[in-house]
Amino acid sequence: MQSSEPKHKALFRTELDLPGRREGKVRDVYTLGHGEGSPRLLVIATDRISAFDVVMPTPIPGKGVILNTIASWWLRWIEGKGLCRTHLLSTDEGEIPEEAFIGSTSREDLAGRVTIGRLCGVVPVECVVRGYLDGSGWEEYRASGRVCGVELPPGLERGSKLPEPIFTPATKAEQGAHDENIGFDEACAIAGAETMRRLRERSLAIYLAAAEHAESRGLILADTKFEFGFPLDEHGEAEGEAILIDEALTPDSSRFWPGDKWKPGGAQESFDKQFVREHLLGLVSRGEWDKSPPGPELPEEVVLGTLERYAEAARRLCAGG
Ligand SMILES: Nc1ncnc2c1ncn2[C@@H]1O[C@H](COP(=O)(O)OP(=O)(O)O)[C@@H](O)[C@H]1O
Ligand SMILES: [Mg+2]
């Protein structure tokens, strides 16, 4: 196992002297630049991993670097293709002011983990696109024949390809709660019909283009989740059109399956969190965990196996242009 030893020192948590600190499940978030110009957000990808909305106590050393590499690669790609404007401004940890480093976190700890984006008012709807049936979409279909109000043909299996990609929004749950699938009408009631129509159109367009790229690299992009927000101006007022924020098209926010192994009718081999989920479901079925916090420690083979899958996704997706 020597060769698969993690290359990175694990980063579980950051401690920077900056305003607006917020701890997401995976990312630590701060605000930057309260001087002139539009406010910016500093997002740091740690090595935490969450599954079933519970953060595991065991970090995946280097996962944050891989995640940030993939996310920023896609954000640039999406901008470059003219698919949507994004929040991405920089990935340079050198832009963090020196005064921030008074705690245990050093600038070196953050190398490769930083995204600096335009601070936005977040649209409180998760914009999910599914090209294949799995996860909560599969559960809903099995129970009702529909997903988020979208009627689907009968006889689909877990992992089946859908006749066309569908937009299946979800609520953005408060910390500790689970996102809930909602119909398009409900999403409109939350975020406004005009905004939601535009975000649906953007989400489907990005999904289609990204799925095509993934396919050219031998990967199926089964489903994915986008977040959008309205950029805030120097007075903290929302301005202009909603832009793509957060991470995009990473193994944390998407299901990636090896195209040559795809076989509907069950769980797929994957380059995403499914590997961890399957391990945890094993614990659940043996009565060793009940999906509530705290999560169980992850064994080394699950840590290394997860890291290897994330690294493979990055190698395949982001090599070359
Ligand atoms: N440009 C942005 N402006 C404001 N908030 C953002 C922006 N980009 C990402 N976020 C928020 O930062 C957080 C990222 O941390 P994450 O670990 O994904 O948290 P969560 O547990 O909420 O998913 C999310 O809450 C996301 O909505
Ligand atoms: Mg998130």
Quick overview:
The protein is α+β, with helices and mostly antiparallel strands and 321 residues long. The protein is built from six helices and 16 strands.
Q: Which structural class should the secondary elements be placed in?
A: alpha+beta
- What's the tally of helices? 6
* Overall 3D form: globular
Hetero compounds = adenosine-5'-diphosphate, magnesium ion
Roughly how many Å apart are the termini?
32 Å
Q: Note the run of SSEs as H and E.
A: EEEEEHEEEEHEEEEHHEEEHH
Query: Which radius of gyration do the C-alpha atoms yield?
Result: 19 Å
Work out the strand percent: 15-25%
Helix content: 25-40%
- Mean residue pLDDT: 94
**Spans of 5+ residues with little confidence (pLDDT < 50)?**
none
Characterize the biggest β-sheet: 7 strands, antiparallel
Per DSSP E runs of 2 or more residues, the count of β-strands stands at: 16
Notes on the protein architecture:
This protein is α+β, with helices and mostly antiparallel strands and about 325 residues long. It has helices at about 65-80, 135-145, 185-190, 195-215, 275-285, 300-320; strands spanning about 20-25, 25-30, 40-45, 50, 55, 90, 115-120, 120, 125-130, 145, 150, 160-165, 170, 220-230, 245, 255-260. It is about 30% helix and about 20% strand. The strands form 4 sheets. Strands 8, 9, 12, 13, 14, 15 and 16 form a 7-stranded antiparallel β-sheet that branches. Strands 1-2-3-7-6 form a 5-stranded antiparallel β-sheet. A two-stranded antiparallel sheet has the order 4-5. The structure holds adenosine-5'-diphosphate (ADP) and magnesium ion. Adenosine-5'-diphosphate (ADP) binds next to strand 2, strand 3, strand 7, strand 8 and strand 14. Adenosine-5'-diphosphate binds near residues 26 and 118.
